[in-house]
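step: validate -> pass
step: tokenize input -> pass
step: predict -> running
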Amino acid sequence: MTTSILSLKNISVNYGNIKALRNISIDVNKGEIISLIGSNGAGKTTTLRTISGILKPVSGEVVFDQQNITGIKPHLLVSRGVSHSPEGRGIFANLTVMENLEMGAYTQNNKAYFEEDLEKVFKLFPRVKERIKQVAGTLSGGEQQMVAMSRALMSRPKVLLLDEPSLGLAPQVVDTIFHIVQEVNKSGMTVLLVEQNAFQALKISHRGYVIETGEIVLSGPAKDLMTNPKVKEAYLGG
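step: predict -> pass
step: emit ->
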């Protein structure tokens, strides 16, 4: 029996008079990679921002680990086990890489855990270790993305929310990022992935949801979505 660790139940979100999300429902089971795909402005980022408490829905519930977390402040959700690596990376550009990682671990008081998590991050991202003393804003786009993901992992999340991790990156770096997402998942981490590169996202996912103008229009096993004519035409280049 699959266990849902994160559920959105009939969530609606408005930006003023604009309905950004309309009664969407999503289930994420423990240990899965779930992809949320759709075009620009479809509501993908809004969905993640609602889960992580940045936006408050006008109706519906967000349930995490069998607790209603709707509207709980983002910093409180981090300590509960929800970590969000935002679109555009959102690193602290004026801080060093190490200081960024320390910011990610601010909810952790256990020094042994910190050292352990640091080693895990260095194993996943050797480049982050190489750049540890460098000011984060001076890194390449790919390196900044690695720092953003590392920082999110330093809080020991149960669920990792990844928003457009491949955005603006060279194809080789994109392959590396998606490989690392798989490695993180193999270690037991649950991942909800928002990604415009639908082919790459579905290729590494267990299941997927397609969102259009704030509504879920399709869902199912990732391999089924990859062969679905509508999905192929709209998101996979035919």
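step: describe -> Residues 45 and 163 are 7 Å apart (CA to CA).
step: cleanup -> pass
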